[in-house]
Write a structure and sequence with these properties.
Layout: H1 20-57, E1 59-61, E2 80-87, H2 92-98, E3 107-115, E4 122-126, E5 132-135, E6 139-142, H3 145-163, E7 169-174, H4 175-184, E8 188-192, E9 196-197, E10 202-203, E11 206-210, H5 212-220, H6 229-247, H7 250-253, H8 256-266, E12 270-273, H9 278-287, E13 296-300, E14 303-308, E15 314-318, H10 320-332, H11 335-341
Parallel strand pairs: 1-12, 2-7, 4-13
Antiparallel strand pairs: 2-3, 3-4, 5-6, 7-12, 8-11, 9-10, 14-15
Helix pairs in contact: 1-8, 2-3, 4-5, 4-8, 5-6, 10-11
Amino acid sequence: MSVYTEDPAPLDGGQRPRPKKSRTARNVLLTVVAFFLVVAVGAGVYAFNLANSFNTKSQKIEQAFPAETARPAETKTDAVNLLLLGSDSRAAALGEAEAGGASDQRSDTMMWVHIPADRKNIYMMSIMRDTWVQIPGHGEAKMNAAMALGGIPLVVQTLEGMFDNRIDHVAVVDFEGFKAMTDALGGVTVNVPAAFNTKQFSFSAGKQQLSGEQALAFVRERKAFTDGDYQRVKNQQLFLKALMSKFLTAETLTNPVRISSLVDTVSPFVSVDKSLDATAVGSLAVGLRNVRSSDVVSFTLPTLGIGTSADGQSIVLRDDAAIAKVGAALRDDTLGEVAKTAGSGS
C-alpha cells in the first residue's frame, strides 16, 4: 500500500525552484520587452537626428512677417497656410530679403500652399510673378516687385492683403534644392505636356525620368514657350506633383536611410521662418501621413490675361473677383471647391 506524501521542503529552508516552463515564459517576455525598448530608443534617436539635421542645416529667415498691426486678424481654424518661394540663387541679395530689406533677389516661384484642417489634401496655388497688384506703401506694381521693395515681409504683407488671410509659415527653396532632392530620390518621372528645348537639354513629350540637372532646367525654362511664364508655372506644378508622388510612397517613407539622406541633402537649400522648426514640420508630417500624390492639387490663381501698365510694362492683369473668391475659400477652409474650377488644376 502506498502512502501520499508531499515533496520534502528544501533542506536550506528556501523556496522550491520554479518550474522550468515558468522561467522560460518570463525570459521570452523580457526578450519581447527588450526588443520593443530597443526599437523605441532607435526610433527616438532617428527622429532626434532628423530634427537636429533640419534645425542645424536649414537657414532661418530673420524677419519673415510684417508688423502685427499690418496683418489680417487670426482665424480660429486648424488649417495651415504656407508661402513657398522658389529662388534662383541663395546669394547675399537673398540674405537681405530674408532680413526684411529691399533686394534685387528674384522669386521665380510663388505658391500659396493650403493644408486644410482635416489634413486630407494639400492645395498648391501658384501666383504669377508679373501679376499687377497693390503693394502696401508703394502703389501698384508687379507682384515680384514686393521682394525688391521690402524683402520677404513685404511679399507676405502684399499677399495677406490680397486674400485677407494670414500666412502661417514661409519657406524659401533654392532651385538647387530641387536638383539635390531629385537626385536623392533617384530621379523623378514627369509627364512632359509638350516637347521643348533648353540650352542644355531636349525634353520630349510624354513620361520621362529626370535627373537633378534635367529637373533644374525643366523648372527654370520660360523662353522656349510662347506663353512664357504661364507654361513655366505649369511645369513647376507638374514637377512638384511628380516629386511629391515619388516621395509619398511606401518605398521612401519606410526607408530611414533614404529619409535621412533627403533631409541632409535638401536642408542646406531651404530657408524657413523661425517657427517652422523640426517640431512644426514633424507635426504636419504626422497629420499628413495618409496623404498620397492623388491628394495633392495644384492650380494657378486665375488672371485676366496679359496687359500693359500705364508706364509701358508687360503685366499679368489680376482678377479681383477670383482673388475675392479664393480669399473667402481660405477663410472657410473650402479651397478644394475653388481648385476644381481654377485654371491649370491637376
